[in-house]
Amino acid sequence: METDRLRRYKDKIGLINQRASELKDWSGDFFKEAKSKLACYKAFQEIAESVFDIAAMAVKDSGRMPTDDYGNADRLVSLNIIDTHLKQALNEANGLRNRIVHEYNGLQDKRALESMEAILPQVKVFVDKVQQWVKTK
Questions:
Q1: What pLDDT, on the 0 to 100 scale, is given for residue 104?
Q2: What is the pLDDT of residue 127?
Q3: Mean pLDDT, 10 residues at a time, over the chain (137 residues)?
Q4: For position 8, what pLDDT does the model report?
Q5: Could you please report the per-residue DSSP string of 31-81?
Q6: Cβ(89)–Cβ(117) below 8 Å
Q7: How far is CA 10 from CA 31, 52, 76, 100, 128, in A?
Q8: Alpha carbon distances (Å) from 62 to 41, 57, 65, 83, 133
């Protein structure tokens, strides 16, 4: 894999790790300050977007045509980069991102925060899997 492409993976992973750390730091004030709530939502949005940017990159770098986010998650399973359990967590992250961005069905802050906190460990697993996969390329 070319150096520039490796740098893109590294940059996306760096952003995920940075935003995950910030989300954890800011979540303590989630219900106290509107700024903290908005910061947490924005951090999670950027995490989910970076995860699916990486998914599309990995699909392309495996010689397949990237599709939509859910299709790319399916392709990562077929490429043995992630398992179906992790795919489900990524799809949940994408769904939550969509609800945050578009405020579908009125966003319930408590449930959203609980979901973000539950998804973050799976994002870490995804990052680890991608880093392992990139080393083989």
A1: 56
A2: 98
A3: 93 98 96 94 98 98 97 98 98 94 77 96 98 94
A4: 97
A5: TT-HHHHHHHHHHHHHHHHHHHHHHHHHHHHTTS---SHHHHHHHHHHTTS
A6: no
A7: 33, 14, 18, 26, 12
A8: 32, 9, 9, 16, 10
**Helix 84-102 vs helix 109-135: crossing angle, to nearest 10:** 130
CA dist., res. 18 & res. 59, Å (int): 24
CA distance 24 to 30: 10
CA distance 24 to 124: 13
Closest CA to 55 of 97, 27, 21, 24: 97
> What pLDDT is stored for residue 11 in this prediction?
98
Contact between 68 and 60 under an 8 Å Cβ cutoff? The reply is no
Model pTM? 0.93
The two three-digit tokens of residue 118, written as one number: 């539950």
- Cα separation, 78 vs 73, whole angstroms: 9
d(CA 130, CA 13): 9
Q: How many CB atoms lie within 10 A of CB 60?
A: 14
Please report, as a single letter, which amino acid is at residue 106. G
Cα–Cα distance for residue pair 32/28, rounded to 1 Å? 8
